Amino acid sequence: MKLHQIKIIAGLSLLAFSGITLAQTSNTSAEKGKQAYVKNGCWQCHGFVGQGGIAGAKLAPDTKPIEYFQAFVRHTNGPMPPYSEKILSNQDLSDIHAYLKSIPKGPDYKTLPLLN
């Protein structure tokens, strides 16, 4: 197991033991989350609607649970730098998660006449 995976698991364990999640501690806003997503440059690697890209993983529409999302953003040791609370507040992180969860799934390719 790699060090960054251990940090993520440790972060998730800490959240589980504390019984606190970002969703429980704040009122989230998908609109504010979209603004924070753009302001903090998330779109540069993950695309404007979380679709992923060459440098960043796909984040939407199948968004990970808030506990995983928080632990990864705070403790990642991969290509994405970790974002501390000084850089990205818990409220902004919670709002970004709400924004990503609000992104609807695209249509099934089988329903697009041009592709059939």
Describe the fold and architecture:
- The protein has 116 residues and is an all-alpha fold.
- The chain has a domain at 1-11 and 51-105: Orthogonal Bundle (Cytochrome Bc1 Complex, Chain D, domain 2).
- It is built from 6 helices and no strands.
- It has helices spanning 3-18, 22-25, 30-39, 43-46, 66-75, 90-102.
- Helix 1 (3-18) crosses helix 5.
- The protein starts with a helix and ends in a 14-residue tail after the last helix.
Give a summary of the structure in a few sentences.
With 116 residues, the chain is mostly helical.
Helix/strand layout:
Blueprint: H1 3-18, H2 22-25, H3 30-39, H4 43-46, H5 66-75, H6 90-102
Helix pairs in contact: 1-5, 3-6
CATH topology of one domain: Cytochrome Bc1 Complex, Chain D, domain 2
Identify the CATH class of one domain. Answer: Mainly Alpha
Overall geometry: globular
Tally of alpha and pi helices: 6
> Biggest β-sheet: count, sense, barrel?
none
Distance between the termini: 44 Å
Order of helices and strands: HHHHHH
CA radius of gyration is 15 Å
Q: Give the low-confidence spans.
A: 16-25
Secondary structure: helix percent: 40-55%
Structural class: mainly alpha
- CATH structural architecture of one domain: Orthogonal Bundle
